[in-house]
């Protein structure tokens, strides 16, 4: 079957589907499935726009709401993962995946599904070491920290995916697996994106968590986006045993949706001709979710996944064939994902804009049904319970304080400002966002189909090599935040280590020269912004 793969969509669904229709008219190519590798931007209304970590000037409604309302329907089954520019409140409703609109399916924080016998997996978000070991604790309305941490990858999702034993055909991540650039035309990559050089040479570009999954899952295809450049690689994996057959992964990173950019790729994938045309659950993945349900955490405390280190009674949560058989029996061997899409928020009405609409924490009936069917924890329900319990404790403590005040024994108020809301861990790959600054250039995406610039279908894979042990990324590396927390700002000299409090205070009050309010951007990001501005002037 033919599978279309797209990079960062940025909400431009009309243009993306128009491009697919153009392919059919001009080249007689009709994809059976469309995969999107993040920054999908399933924005339903003005409240959703407030939950996107972008400056206000980049908060455009785009066209997803037309598919959400039913005004339009996706002409091809679309499966996507989340990126770092999403309506996080909307996607958070579906932690285990679900329909965001008819014929458009979100894979959840992590997920595996099947279509025509092809096994498709993915993990949403981007990697940031300081949030990696936390639970999914965020909920709308978000603050300036949680609006970003909501889309950061967590170790529990990686741990779940690492329990899979059966082969994966296609896997998606938003950011690239770290080290993958050593298996393609690195020279050409650095020619196009010279500001990647320092991170490529130091082997710090990309996600160590995704690299760990790549080594474990060894899928036939791996697709990514995020860096807004097309890049192909071919990675030959080492066999874990003499009995294991050699495996290789074809990696492809896609560009973002812009006119005349090669943001779509068509590939031919072997499939089961006897399988139906419906999207299906994956029985092994459901069994893994059931096996790991006790590990669900909705706190922001850091914690480690079970491992064979003498500290855990159980560390292997992979499932048996018997457990998979039980899932099949529960479903009467009918794995078809129900088309149970439900509107959970008001849809944008261009004639009646509601600029003051506020986001609310919503429990989606799709998730409720899914959790009830398989005996899983509804993460959003658990978060809501935790918020109510915290609210109850706060009320009790307030009453206690009032009693103390009445007896004159209350503690004197501090003369210092105790608001530490701005003292979060500094994220070296993101700048602080306000009305005028941005994480990346997220200008309105338009993908005008051009007869002079049809998308290219061929991909060259080069530089086949075995990954040396020295490049392997362990789970310890993925959880080590020290290297990720060092910021290189503006020059080549490394900033001396400071405590996290000193760094945070410096960010709020100004630099050592007394320059307050100046945002420092990594050189790579500076170059990206400059390149994006050039795109807009072309």
TrEMBL record:
<feature type="region of interest" description="Disordered">
    <location>
        <begin position="386"/>
        <end position="538"/>
    </location>
</feature>
<dbReference type="GO" id="GO:0046872">
    <property type="term" value="F:metal ion binding"/>
</dbReference>
<dbReference type="InterPro" id="IPR041816">
    <property type="entry name" value="Dbr1_N"/>
</dbReference>
<feature type="compositionally biased region" description="Polar residues">
    <location>
        <begin position="415"/>
        <end position="427"/>
    </location>
</feature>
<dbReference type="GO" id="GO:0008419">
    <property type="term" value="F:RNA lariat debranching enzyme activity"/>
</dbReference>
<feature type="compositionally biased region" description="Basic and acidic residues">
    <location>
        <begin position="485"/>
        <end position="510"/>
    </location>
</feature>
<keyword id="KW-0464">Manganese</keyword>
<keyword id="KW-0408">Iron</keyword>
<keyword id="KW-0862">Zinc</keyword>
<dbReference type="Pfam" id="PF05011">
    <property type="entry name" value="DBR1"/>
</dbReference>
<dbReference type="GO" id="GO:0000398">
    <property type="term" value="P:mRNA splicing, via spliceosome"/>
</dbReference>
<dbReference type="Pfam" id="PF00149">
    <property type="entry name" value="Metallophos"/>
</dbReference>
<comment type="similarity">
    <text>Belongs to the lariat debranching enzyme family.</text>
</comment>
<keyword id="KW-0507">mRNA processing</keyword>
<dbReference type="InterPro" id="IPR007708">
    <property type="entry name" value="DBR1_C"/>
</dbReference>
<dbReference type="InterPro" id="IPR029052">
    <property type="entry name" value="Metallo-depent_PP-like"/>
</dbReference>
<feature type="compositionally biased region" description="Acidic residues">
    <location>
        <begin position="396"/>
        <end position="405"/>
    </location>
</feature>
<feature type="domain" description="Lariat debranching enzyme C-terminal">
    <location>
        <begin position="235"/>
        <end position="380"/>
    </location>
</feature>
<feature type="compositionally biased region" description="Basic and acidic residues">
    <location>
        <begin position="386"/>
        <end position="395"/>
    </location>
</feature>
<keyword id="KW-0539">Nucleus</keyword>
<feature type="compositionally biased region" description="Acidic residues">
    <location>
        <begin position="431"/>
        <end position="442"/>
    </location>
</feature>
<keyword id="KW-0378">Hydrolase</keyword>
<keyword id="KW-0479">Metal-binding</keyword>
<dbReference type="InterPro" id="IPR004843">
    <property type="entry name" value="Calcineurin-like_PHP"/>
</dbReference>
<dbReference type="GO" id="GO:0005634">
    <property type="term" value="C:nucleus"/>
</dbReference>
<protein>
    <submittedName>
        <fullName>DBR1 enzyme</fullName>
    </submittedName>
</protein>
């Amino acid at each position: 079957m033919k599978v279309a793969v797209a990079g960062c969509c940025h909400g431009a669904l009309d243009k993306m589907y128009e491009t697919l229709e153009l392919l059919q008219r001009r080249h007689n190519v009709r994809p059976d499935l469309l995969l999107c590798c993040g920054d999908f931007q399933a924005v339903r209304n003005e409240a959703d726009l407030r939950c996107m970590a972008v400056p206000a000037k980049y908060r455009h409604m785009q066209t997803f709401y037309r598919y959400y309302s039913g005004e339009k329907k996706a002409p091809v089954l679309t499966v996507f993962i989340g990126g770092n520019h999403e309506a996080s409140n909307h996607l958070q409703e579906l932690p285990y995946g679900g329909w965001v609109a008819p014929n458009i399916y979100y894979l959840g924080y992590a997920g595996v599904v099947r279509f025509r016998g092809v096994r498709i997996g993915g993990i949403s978000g981007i990697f940031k070491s300081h949030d990696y070991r936390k639970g999914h604790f965020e909920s709308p309305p978000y603050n300036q920290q949680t609006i970003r941490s909501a889309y950061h990858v967590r170790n529990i999702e990686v741990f779940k995916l690492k329990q899979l034993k059966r082969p994966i055909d296609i896997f998606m991540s938003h950011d690239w697996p770290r080290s993958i650039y050593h298996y393609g035309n690195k020279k050409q990559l650095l020619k196009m994106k010279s500001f990647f050089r320092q991170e490529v040479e130091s082997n710090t570009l990309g996600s160590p968590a995704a690299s760990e999954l790549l080594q474990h899952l060894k899928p036939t295809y791996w697709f990514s986006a995020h860096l807004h450049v097309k890049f192909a690689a071919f990675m030959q994996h080492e066999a874990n045993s003499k009995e294991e057959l050699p495996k290789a992964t074809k990696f492809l990173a896609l560009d973002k949706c812009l006119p005349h950019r090669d943001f779509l790729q068509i590939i031919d994938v072997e499939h089961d001709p006897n399988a139906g045309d419906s999207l299906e659950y994956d029985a092994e993945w459901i069994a893994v979710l059931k096996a790991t349900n006790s590990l669900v955490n909705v706190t922001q405390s850091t914690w480690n996944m079970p491992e064979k280190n003498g500290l855990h009674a159980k560390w292997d949560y992979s499932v048996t064939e018997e457990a998979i058989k039980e899932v099949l029996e529960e479903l009467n061997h009918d794995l078809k994902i129900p088309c149970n899409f439900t509107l959970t928020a008001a849809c944008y009405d261009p004639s009646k804009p509601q600029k003051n609409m506020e986001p609310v924490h919503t429990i989606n009936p799709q998730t409720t049904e899914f959790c009830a069917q398989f005996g899983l924890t509804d993460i959003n329900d658990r978060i809501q319970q935790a918020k109510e319990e915290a609210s109850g404790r706060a009320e009790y403590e307030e009453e206690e304080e009032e009693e103390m005040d009445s007896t004159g024994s209350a503690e004197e108020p501090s003369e210092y400002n105790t608001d530490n809301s701005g003292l979060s861990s500094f994220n070296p790959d993101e700048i602080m966002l306000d009305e005028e600054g941005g994480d990346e250039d997220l200008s309105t995406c338009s993908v005008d189909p051009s007869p002079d610039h049809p998308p290219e279908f061929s991909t060259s894979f080069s530089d086949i090599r075995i990954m040396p042990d020295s490049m392997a990324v362990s789970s310890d590396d993925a959880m080590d935040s020290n290297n990720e927390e060092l910021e290189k700002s503006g020059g080549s000299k490394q900033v001396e280590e400071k405590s996290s409090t000193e760094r945070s205070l410096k960010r709020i009050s100004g630099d050592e020269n007394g320059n307050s309010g100046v945002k420092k951007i990594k050189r790579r990001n500076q170059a990206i912004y400059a390149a994006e501005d050039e795109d807009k002037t072309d």
